[in-house]
Amino acid sequence: MSDDDVLIAVRALAPALRERAAGTEALRRVPDTSVKELESAGFFRLLQPRAYGGLATDPAVFYAAVHEIAKACGSTGWAASVLGVHPWYVAQFDPRAQEEVWGADGASRICSSHAPTGKVASVAGGFRLSGRWRFSAGCDHARWALLGGLVTDGEGRPVDVRTFLVPCADYRVDGVWDTVGLRGSGSNDIVVEDAFVPAHRTLGYGPVTTLRCPGHEINHEPLYRLPYAAVFTTAVSTAMVGIAEGAYEDHLVAARESVRASHGRRAAESPFAQVRLARAAGEIDAARLQLGRNMTDLYTIARSGAEIPTELRARTRRDQALATERALTAVDLLMENAGRGPLRTDDGVLQRAWRDLHTGRGQAANDVERALALYAQDALGMDVHDPML
Which residue, 13, 28, 138, 191, is most buried by CB atoms nearer than 10 A? Predict the structure, then answer.
C-alpha cells in the first residue's frame, strides 16, 4: 500500500467509526471490528519499519490519519494514535527485540504505560519486573507492552529510567477503565508479576534522547531519527485536535438549523454565536498549523542527516501542549454556543468531545505549564535536561 492508499482507506472508514462512537463508549474499549478495519487499511504499518513490512512513512501522513480517525470517534482516535505510534518506538530497540515482536507476525500491536511505577530488579542477563502500570490505551488489542521502570543501584538509588518490552504472556490486563471521557479507549491497567525481561528488550532514555538507539543498525529511514518526545506527544495532541474539529463540524451543521427558545430566532443569526464559532475555528486551525509546521521542520532535518537543535525540540513541545489547550478552548466555546442540549449524555458528538478532551488533557504529555517552562528555559539560555524534550 502507498501512503495515499492508507489515507484514502482511513477516510473511507470514518462514517462507520462515527456510527460506532456511542457503542465504543458503552463497550469501554475500541471494538474488534474497528481495529481490524484500521489494520486492513494499513494504518498500524505507517510508522513500522520497512524491514518488517511497514511503510516508514513521512510522519505527516500518520498524523493526518490520526486526525481523521479522531474526528470520527475520539476514543478510537486516541487509542489508534497510541497503538499506531508504538511501531516507531519498537524500531528504536535492539534488532533482536524487533525480531521477537514482528518476526513471526508483522501485524503484532504494542501498547504502553511509560510512567515508571513498577519494581525493577537487575539480574544476570536482564531484569525482573513486577507491578501495575495504568492508563494503557488499546491494551486489549496488543500482544506486547512497553512499560516504564526505574533502575536503581545496590543501595536503592535511581541510576537509569528504562522502557521494558514485555510480551502479553508475561502480563495481564485488568479492566478497570471507567471514566467520564475517552471511555472507549480501553486504557486499562497492565499487571506484571515477576517477569524476566532480557537486556536487549529494554531501552534507556539516554539513547532515545540523544537519537543513538540500537535499532538504527537496521532501520535507516529518517523517520527513526526524530525525537521521541516530539513523535509521541504530537500523536496524542493530533488526536485531541481531531476530536475538536469533529465537534466543530457537527455543531456547525446543528447551528444552521437550531432555534433558541429564549428569543425564537435561529442560533446562526446571533452575532455572539458567530463570534464564538469563528474563535473556535481559529483555535483549531492554529493548533493544526503549528503541529504540522514543527513535524515538517523536524522531518526535513532528519532527512538531511543534521542534528536536530534543542530550540526546535522545545518549540515542538511548546506547540504540542498549546494544541491541546486550543482544542479544549474550541470545544468549550462550542458548548457555550450550544445551550442546554449537549448537557444530555445521550445528545451526541459535542458533549462526548467535551468529555473526551477534558479527560485527555490529564495525560502527562499534555501538561501545558511544564512544556512552556521548558521552552522558556531554553529561550533564556538555561541548560535544559528533560526526557520529554
Answer: 138
